[in-house]
Amino acid sequence: MSRDSPPRSPPRSPPIVLGSSSPQRAHILRTVLGIENFKVVPSHCPEDLDPLQYESAKEYALATCNAKLDCLLQRQASFETPSVVVVADTVVADCDGRVYGKPHDSKTQYEMLAHFIKGPFVEIHTALRVVVVVCKNSVDDITSHCETTRLVFDPTITPHVLRDYINTGEGINAAGGFCIQAGGGALVKSVEGDYYNVVGLPANALFNALLAVKDFLPSRNRRE
């Protein structure tokens, strides 16, 4: 390099695309991982897979997450390339592996939460896919992972207290019928694993995946 040549700037990290409209997932990216510059591009994927067709709640979460990613990749015009694409799906399952979706009405919500309170535990599975979309029809996989967090609900919660919680309107549109990051957290006695996984994104697993992207890009550039 000559003395008059301008110094080369380091390669710019590709932008992050969050394939979810969940405000909780965006909040985790922004406040927990400190990532301000990302674009939200919902996958608009119909979540119509049948959990009974899968051997486990984990497999169901991963299948739904993969379907979301496929839908998102069909809409590459919505984001620039290269981009780091983050997609997740969170599933709530009881100790027998039965999957619980959004209750949508207060009766179903009460039945769900009363069942969780009886115990012995509930598992939250969040499937995570992180890929680098290099260009059209060129996608490199960084991670395909399913994180599990185990919750134990407080068995001393009375039906009256449970109804008071449901009457707040919280959790009616959340898988499992509760929001641990809000009032629903008072129903939970213990958390074993990544708390943020319950909220919607496994923060540590995503952090390590994004570190792997930084290592992956220079090596890919060298190969090319």
TrEMBL record:
<dbReference type="Pfam" id="PF02545">
    <property type="entry name" value="Maf"/>
</dbReference>
<keyword id="KW-0378">Hydrolase</keyword>
<dbReference type="InterPro" id="IPR029001">
    <property type="entry name" value="ITPase-like_fam"/>
</dbReference>
<dbReference type="InterPro" id="IPR003697">
    <property type="entry name" value="Maf-like"/>
</dbReference>
<dbReference type="GO" id="GO:0047429">
    <property type="term" value="F:nucleoside triphosphate diphosphatase activity"/>
</dbReference>
<protein>
    <recommendedName>
        <fullName>Maf-like protein</fullName>
    </recommendedName>
</protein>
<feature type="region of interest" description="Disordered">
    <location>
        <begin position="1"/>
        <end position="21"/>
    </location>
</feature>
